[in-house]
Structures are given as structure tokens and as C-alpha cells.
Amino acid sequence: MNLQSMETYTLWADFWQALSHPIRLRVLEALRCEGALNVGQLVDRLGIGQGHLSNHLACLKNCGLVTTEAQGRYVYYHLADDRVPTLLDVGEAIFRDHWAGVATCAVVSQKPAPTRS
Amino acid sequence: MNLQSMETYTLWADFWQALSHPIRLRVLEALRCEGALNVGQLVDRLGIGQGHLSNHLACLKNCGLVTTEAQGRYVYYHLADDRVPTLLDVGEAIFRDHWAGVATCAVVSQKPAPTRS
DNA sequence: CTATGATATTGCGATATTACAATATGATAG
DNA sequence: CTATCATATTGTAATATCGCAATATCATAG
Lengths: 117, 117
Prior knowledge:
Chain A is an alpha+beta fold. In chain A, 57% of the residues lie in helices and 13% in strands. In chain A, strands 1-3-2 form a three-stranded antiparallel β-sheet. In chain A, β2 and β3 form a beta hairpin. Chains A and B meet through α1, α2, α4 and α5 of A and α1, α2, α4 and α5 of B. Chain B binds a DNA duplex through α4.
């Protein structure tokens, strides 16, 4: 695949978007801490609806961040490989130094812009 | 800042979102290759409107991925630190192994779902 | 001060994503 | 085969983001 084309950047952006949701990040952190969990266990830990979670899991799987292993009626999810925790670590390190700035970002998570007179 | 709270994950998701846009990725790649560029040079290289680009640059700056240096009327942008190329490298490595799956992801970049009869 | 070039901000229609409920699929026990 | 539990998929209203145009700000030259 050509890494210079506009379409490739659009697809690469979609990959990063897999990391851009609090529920998906909480799934990744839970799997990093606990190794492997099935859908029901993740529903319990995150406290969200099963169908909703399943959509997010499909996203993480399609984007190569997690893999699954079926065991009877249960489907266990775990991090895809060692690069995933590395990615999370580096991202968290940069984020820790800049969370205050992220909160003021007007493009991402556009807050209603403080009204001024 | 408490790294366990839901709000923190929401903010961390906003940080990742800075990477989730083709224009912002192209800016980061341009800066990685060329070191430092001002806004006009980036407008030329990316071929988009100045105001539009400026919004994306503000996003990257707020999220700690780039920093700026004013020189007279020009503002030069460059990558914030060495962790940024590391982040891009690891992300690209995982993406390269899974771009076909990313393209089928229904949560991110929801395609109109192939109609079946 | 005025004009001009460079960059930043704002407003808003078009589009994409999310959250939830309903429903479908798949596996296993009896 | 039927019932049941676990997981996946779909529809859609609410919400957030994008992209562009207009305009504001800021620095410098004259």
C-alpha cells in the first residue's frame, strides 16, 4: 500500500481513531492489566451495555489492537501484541505533560467557546 | 491528575484524536521530514486553505505534538520532542499490518454497509 | 499612523460518530 | 429439536467534527 497517498493518510487517521474513545481506551487498559477478558467480564468492569461494548470491541479488533480467542460460548479478548502497550505508554507520557492543553483544544472536543461581551 | 477517572479517559481520548485526521497526520509527517516549516509553507505543501490549516495546527499544539517559534511575521512549527516520531513509528508499524482491517471497521469511518438481499 | 503580509479565530451548513434499544446469530445443555 | 446464555449486528436520534468563507489580530515597512 502506498504510504504517500491521501487515501492512505485517511485510513491511517481511522486507525488512530480507534484509540480516540474513552471506552476503547478503558478496554485496552483493562486488557493490559488483566491479560484476557471475555465480553461479559468487560461489561461488568466498564458498566456499559453489551451491544454498545461489542461495537467498540469490533473496532479495536479490526484496527489490529486486540485479538480474540473463542472458548465455548465465551470470546476472550487480549491485546494484539507488545507494540500495543508500547503505543499506549508513549501516548500516555506525552499526554501527561499536556493534558491541560488538550482540555483547551477547540478543534477536538469543541467546547461551546466561552461567550464574551 | 487522576489517571483512573472517566474524565481523564475522555481527555486522553481527545489527545489521541489529535492524531486521527489525515491533514494533521500529513502536517506531522511534513515536519518530521523537513524539521521546521511556517504556516505558508505548510499551506503550499498540503494544498488546503490557510484558515482551515490554522485550526489543525492549533489542535496539534494544544495536544503537545508540535511547538511553535515566532520569527518576525512568520510562525515556525516543529515536532514537540523525540517521543512524537516514536509514537508515529509504532502506530505506523501496527497500521501497516492491519490497514485492510481498518478499512472494514464499521465504528470508525462508518461506510454505508454493503447492502445485502 | 496606514498599508500590507502572515497567521488566528469565528460562524455555520454538511457530514460522521456515538449511545441505546431491539433483534439476530452462534454455541451448548437437556 | 428447543431453550438458554453469550456475543454480534442493525436502526436511528442526538451529538460532535469537518470544511470553508469571512473576518480579526499581530508584526513590520514606509
